[in-house]
Amino acid sequence: MRNDNLSAPQAIYRKDYVAPGFWVDTVEMGLDLGLEQTHVATRMTLRRNPESTEKDIVLFGDGLKILQLRLNGANLKKSQYSIQGETMRIPDAPDDVVLEIETLIQPVKNTALSGLYASAGNLITQCEAEGFRRITWFPDRPDVMAKYTVLLRADKKAFPVLLSNGNLIEEGDLGDGRHYAKWEDPFFKPSYLFAIVAGKLVCQEETFRLQDGRDALLQVWVEPGNLDKTDHAMQSLKKSIRWDEERFGLELDLDRFMIVATGDFNMGAMENKGLNIFNTKYVLANPSIATDTDYAGIESVVGHEYFHNWTGNRVTCRDWFQLSLKEGLTVFRDQEFSADLVGTATGRAVKRIEDVRVLRQVQFSEDAGPMAHPVRPDSFVEINNFYTVTIYEKGSEVVRMYYTLLGHDGFRKGMDLYFARHDGQAVECDDFRAAMADAGGRDLTQFERWYSQAGTPRVHASAVYNAEEKTYVLTLAQSCPATPGQAEKLPFHIPVTVGLLGADGRDLPLHTDGAQAGQTSVVLELTEASQTFIFRDVAEEPVPSLLRNFSAPVVLHFDYSDAQLAHLLAHDSDPFNRWEAGQRLATRRLVKLTQAVQAGEALALDEMFLEALRNTLNDTTLDPAFRELVLTLPSELVIAEEFDEVDPQAIHTARQFARAAISDALRGDLLTAYEDNLTPGKYSPDAESSAKRSLKNLALSYLADWPQQSTFDLALTQFNEAENMTDRLAALHALVNFKGDAKQKKAADKALAQFYKLFSKEALVVDKWFMLQAVAETTDVAKVRELMQHPAFTLNNPNRARSLTFSFCNANPSQFHAPDGSGYALWAELVIALNKINPQVAARLARSMDRWKKYSPALQQKMKAALEKVAGTKKLSKDVAEVVTKALAAE
């Protein structure tokens, strides 16, 4: 039901796109920098776009004080232009224009962290998506591309380092303690890629030889005191540059490439041309403060932002509806980069499984909620709300389907054609699809539906084996649930990779249309509502391995028996489906356990499942990281998706019982796995060592569910003796969640306090300390409120806000969904408070209530009240208003 007291914010529609009335050729900017106020002088040359129906010069600005506005040298009177909201219109302009604008901004008051803002005494920009309009009036849209020259002036003591996009062409002193730096970007770019950084920074730098023989200067800039934490980021950057040269033939096009780390940042990182700005979380690392996951995250994000240099910068988006054109494609590229660096087939599979887990847990839920939208949305109210897992992760899956359909070489041809056609342009998702189709000689017209239709398709598979004819007939049928604004869905073009396993566990050779001789996997293309595929010369009834490597972002339904799933778990040559079989076995049992909890029945876990886990755990021919993934139970959020009405407490009780049962049954095996996967010696984040630690620490977490003094001592010893953050944090997690007596609880609290004291000066580690407590089984709303009073906690810093409040609301479902509604009341307070500080961050927290209609009527009532409280807030930002409006309108 819609809340009549909250009017829906005005939407922007893709169908209403109009090309800009004027193009901008050059932009010259002079900034006199200061924390309290910065003076911005902009001079731009414009020319009329003869193909546009827009006749006025249209500029955008937000919170700017105009000091002067001149057109072709003449001051504009207020009667010669109009301002409505964030839009300025200048009518009756000649075809060629020189526009000069002077504005005044106040960076220190910019808590939204969009535009030019202050961070730890430094000045930083974030202009994607619409932050440039908070710096100066400008046609701030991605299809307006220009060449920029930027002159920065500042007090030399306060801002000794002055950085911007492109190449440094001049620098010097101005007298009176001030200095300047002049930067020139030789490439056309949209305003969202503009960047400056000024402040007290130090850098690690290296000269890197590119494949064409040029030398490029690489720099990683950080605040003083963090220089010892930059080496991994630098190595990741060099690997990224080399990988893009070798895999896609794409070279660094500038003489220098810079990374800057800041502790105040709304996102993970930003790909500004030649001057990437990063959240410190994705730059700073050494063994004492960073986990294996942190090291992998840095490598991935550094790669992602560097790869944007071509997929996003050289070829950019025509409009923000095409956001996945750059983000989905670049996520695919960074996923492939990370997988290639591991180098082994199993290592690639582990990366694939990790990516799919995120997709299923977060994106599938988004597809089923009120904020569901296509990969290429048709409308939005606030573009910041559409930096979503659908745009990024599902967008990546769409790109991966091209790769599956066209093959490695065909996909590379498509990429080459895409750049040949569109380098230096702002284009649409359809342009990428056309390049892939033309390069591969394929008709991909139907494939467009992946861009225009929201929702997660369902593929229902059934099969019949005919022993006399030795045929295996596989029928695939597809459907897609209704989503907001899209009741009916047309069939998608779905690649379904299939293999067949014999009784001995080996792949059977496939004899079907499209399969080559001796082939054991084939890509079936499902394009109709229902299709039948016939496999011939099948000597025995097989077990089908369907949707290998998760070849499409769909939900697959096939009536596997437990015995068939156990067979796949033990033998499937496709590692993804081997893991998938284990997850299906686990999910079935967790659903039944949840139902038993609700019915008040006795709980039990069957021996067949436990034995399957034991066999996997003890199979040393398998990569330890793969075994860790198989032994990790589906999360409470994933289990919740199996129910029409979610009971968070019952799900939590069921999952905790399953963990305890596994711990009890596999105790000896877990101890052996723990001991066999120790990594003595100097810490290294390499794939082999990380894999061993992942399995060892999973074993420790299971053993912590066996409340014996010996396992507590094992965790405490690891905590005290750990020489790296991965092992130390895993041990602390085990101690905090240990189900022991008062004495053990006291020892765990002491370890928690010791950890904070040891790392209180390391902001990223303090974030971990808050997060660990936020997701602890015993952390309730009262504990969160207590932690919010800690001197180290603040809502002003996005990382710190996320570490505690986001973690509790999104990753501790049994406590957040407390029956008394206290979690929802806390959520409402936090969203309202953050809305005043940083609307982007507030809107992301607001998404925690997207699926409120999935819960029991009693919980729904309390959730709706919390949503309405936020909706009734005065001066609610567009960011938050869009989220709560759509949530309350959910059917």
Automatic annotation (TrEMBL):
Essential cofactor(s): Zn(2+)
Entry superkingdom: Bacteria
Gene Ontology MF annotations: alanyl aminopeptidase activity; metallopeptidase activity; zinc ion binding
GO biological process: proteolysis
Gene3D superfamilies: 2.60.40.1840, 3.30.2010.30, Neutral Protease Domain 2, Peptidase M1, alanyl aminopeptidase, C-terminal domain, tricorn interacting facor f3 domain
Sequence ranges assigned to domain Peptidase M1 alanyl aminopeptidase C-terminal in this UniProt record: 562-889
Domain spans labelled Peptidase M1 alanyl aminopeptidase Ig-like fold: 455-558
Domain Peptidase M1 membrane alanine aminopeptidase, first and last residues per copy: 233-450
Family the entry assigns: Belongs to the peptidase M1 family.
Name used for this protein in its record: Aminopeptidase N
Organism: Undibacterium luofuense
Gene name per UniProt: pepN
